[in-house]
Amino acid sequence: MRTKHKRLSWLAVALMAPLAWGQAMAQTLPDAGEVIAKYVAAIGGRDAVMRQSARRTTGTFAVPAQGITGNFEAFAMAPNRAVLHANVPGLGDVAGGYDGEVAWSLNPAMGPMVLEGRMLDQMRQQSDLYAPLHGEDFIKSMETVEAVDFEGTPCYKVKIVTVWDEEYHEYFSRDSGLLIGSVRQSATPMGEMEATTVYADYTEVAGLLIPYKSVQRMMGFEQVFTAETIEPATVPDSVFALPREIKALIGK
Amino acid sequence: MGFAAAPAAGRQFDPALAMRTFDVAWQLVYDTHFDTTFNGVDWLAVRDELRPRAEAATSNRELRAVIGEMIGRLGQSHFALIPREVSERGDALDDAEDAVGGDAAGVGDAGLDVRLLDGRVVVASVEEAGPAWAAGIRPGWIVLSTNDRAIDSLVTRLNAMDQHMSLATRVWSVVLGRLGGPPGSTLALTMLDGADDTVRLALTRRREPSTPVKFGNLPPFFARYDGRAVPVADGHAVGVIWFNFWMVPLIRQVDSAVNAYRQFDGMVVDLRGNRGGLGAMVMGVAGHFFDERVLLGTFKTRTASLQIAANPRRVSPAGTRVQPFAGPVAVLVDETSASASEVFAGGMQVAGRVRVFGSTSAGAVLPATTDELPNGDVLYHAFAEFVTPNGVALEARGVIPDEVVRPDRETLLAGRDVVMEAALRWIAAQRAAIN
């Protein structure tokens, strides 16, 4: 009952707030384009983003509450190829990737899968090294909707609408301009689930600030990815070749 | 599910830590239980009642008893307190041999399985390579005592308890625990043989032929698999697949078996004795029997619905394109089939892809996760319920077979597996109808 009462009170405040503050907030919120421009500048600038060619990342991941830890190795190549291999004790080797055309996953528990629909859209975006520019390839519109604290950081909350009509929110530090996190319906083989992702430990790699740590909370589970090394690398095309299971699935 | 703990050595009991542990355990259930009525239990009142007892606890044992009682009040499966010592078992399973040898409790066995039939604990199967077979024990014998602990009184005691799981399920679980022990240890059995003569035997437990699997902070699973081709009429065969946990090391064997049996008349997935495991594996195994994505059910949390759907397996382990198996599939269940096994059997049954034989499954079907508590113990707690595509929640209900077949002592003594026989007859009839 206490919780319900609290929710009702909160709702009342929320309903009243726009009447009182709406006009003032509209005047003080920066345009989403400005927020993104500040973000791009903060991570090193458009040229630094466009200069990326390929990189290799190694690190660890953990699901702390469940006592699960493992290692991962990821490769990315401009403009939009990516592959990740992880070893999960008790689950085995898990992998996923996008070769510029096909998004896939290999999970020993579920079998090989070609990702389609929203899963493909999101994988395509996440694999794109130029995605931080928020270009028209992925983004249909953006709007700064409010100034809020996100994970303890004063942020601008930007509503993003993708070209496939997905809406989600990104949070940019009002101070540094960096992307602090996002809240998004993550597409998975079990359906869409709200995922809150928090980025931290931005570190310069070849003139570009990259978060070394990301924490994702989904369905009450928290997953932590921590990079140990991120380095520009010469990555052979073969790294991004589709696994034989995926080739068989798509008839290649 | 119960998790026995060895006494915690060398740790001081910290009352403040104990209270934080109690509070966090209560809060986790409060925040994540899929049912905001908490199965009809006044969860706030439970805290108010039990918190003073947690405050009065003077040892981990007492604290664990209070937390155990608290989650027991929910009257549902998949709520358990895993003591830190048990959770940490097998943390270094990199070398499986060392792990089994160095921490052997519970991984030795006598090579026999039992069921509760007409109030008696009866030997249901005996492995020919095990010590029970070597000692002359055969299916149909009745277990009267294990290490001088009477079975009758155990059954009476368990029967008196008000539990959500059936008596047969609970008796099986406890007796299996008593039959197990460190490899090399002695198991004294008093039994009635096939002629109803009392027999006293002393067996030496073998190391169970299993693969230890450590997943997060759950205690190690000891995974076993058996697959075989059963010859049927006219040179035909049926593939039989059995495994005891839904754990990934076994899925490679299941994948290979399905591939090897692809041309057979039918397949039997024998889930008797399978207590569950990773729910995601259900999607992979089910996909061997569907050529399209088919919904098997939904994990319903407080705020979301997760779809459990078959992932069509159109690739062989060798990486070649194949068609998922389209022939008849029988699934065998009984009161020892639980959790992920029930998700598979129930989902496939509702999808109309399999025929289920045996007796009603355990009815322990709540997707669960773990959270480490402040004192290092682990709370195992359900966060969702499983609902079949036709809207039936299987918790406390179980999977009801399409064809109810129960073994009895006479058929066991005759060396028959009447549940398997029924499944093989059905597959033969299906094939005959097609041909």
What labels would you give this structure?
heterodimer; A: 252 residues; alpha+beta; 13-stranded antiparallel β-sheet; 5 helices; 48% strand; disordered N terminus; B: 435 residues; 4-stranded antiparallel β-sheet; 13 helices; 22 strands; globular
Q: How many beta strands in the DSSP annotation of chain B?
A: 22
What portion of the residues of chain B fall into strands of 2 or more residues? 15-25%
Beta strand count of chain A: 13
The helix/strand class of chain B is alpha+beta
Helix content of chain B: 25-40%
Calculate the mean pLDDT score of chain A and round it.
Answer: 91
- Indicate the mean pLDDT of chain B: 92
Distance between the termini of chain B: 46 Å
Largest sheet of chain B: 6 strands, mixed
Main beta sheet of chain A: strand number and arrangement?
Answer: 13 strands, antiparallel
Radius of gyration of chain A: 20 Å
Q: How do the helices and strands follow one another from N- to C-terminus of chain A?
A: HHHEEEEEEHEEEEEEEH
Number of helices of chain B: 13
Principal-axis shape of chain B equals: globular
Radius of gyration of chain B: 22 Å
Approximately how much helix is present in the residues of chain A?
10-25%
Quickly count the helices of chain A: 5
Categorize the overall geometry of chain A.
globular
Oligomer: heterodimer
Provide the low-confidence segments of chain B as ranges: 92-106
